[in-house]
Amino acid sequence: MNGTSGLSLILIIFAAQFLPMAIMQVELTNPDYGFTVTDGSGHSFSMDIPVDQGGHGAGFRPMQTLLAALCGCSAIDVVAILKKQRQQMSALKIAADGQREPGKEPSLWKHIQLRFEIGGDVDPSKAIRAVELSMEKYCSVAETLRLAGAMIEWQVFLNGGKISN
After folding, report:
1. Strand partners, 158
2. How far is Cα of residue 125 from the mean position of the Cα atoms in its chain?
3. Domain-by-domain residue ranges, the chain?
């Protein structure tokens, strides 16, 4: 047995403790700060920084992608929960806004507000419960942001009317 086989076994055991994720690749594709982000399946999006920071404003800013991931993660949860409850949801829109730590590097998200707009023939209590379960139990992105110190608040609107918070 050579000296690296024990280390390889430890790395395999260590890696097996985590869920597999899509491999992400970031490539400089525009001058200065323009990047294309691509996953292992070929899905892609553009990332850049604002013009006033030296970029071209031609894509998502990196911290915006965290808010997008939060919305996407929770949206998947809410759809799955309401489908399981046999609710006839016809629309879902989530708007996110947030404030970051001023004057710090790195500047983390400190306060995030989400607005869930649900449409369709959905029981109001089930709509609220679906969002609550996502935000407090299922959404890994929400938990990641909370562990980093962010406070996440949310409101639920059903067919245009506010039904929570």
Report:
1. 118, 161
2. 24
3. 5-53, 62-162
Amino acid at 152: I
Options 3.40.50.1820, 3.30.300.20, 3.40.50.150, 3.30.930.10; CATH for 62-162 is 3.30.300.20
Residue at 118: amino acid letter: I
Per-residue pLDDT of the chain (165 residues; tens, 9 = 90+): 444 444 444 444 444 455 566 688 999 998 889 999 999 889 999 999 999 999 999 999 999 999 999 999 999 999 999 999 999 999 999 999 999 999 999 999 999 999 999 999 999 999 999 999 999 999 999 999 999 999 999 999 999 999 986
Compute the distance between CA of residue 42 and CA of residue 22 in angstroms, rounded to an integer: 10
Beta carbons within 8 Å of 157's beta carbon, 6+ residues apart: 115, 116, 117, 118, 163
CA distances from 24 to 44, 45, 63 (A): 9, 11, 16
| pTM for this entry | 0.84
Q: Which long-range contacts (CB under 8 A, 24 or more apart) does 25-34 make?
A: 30/56, 30/58, 31/56, 32/56, 34/58, 34/59
CB atoms < 10 A from the CB of 122, how many? 22
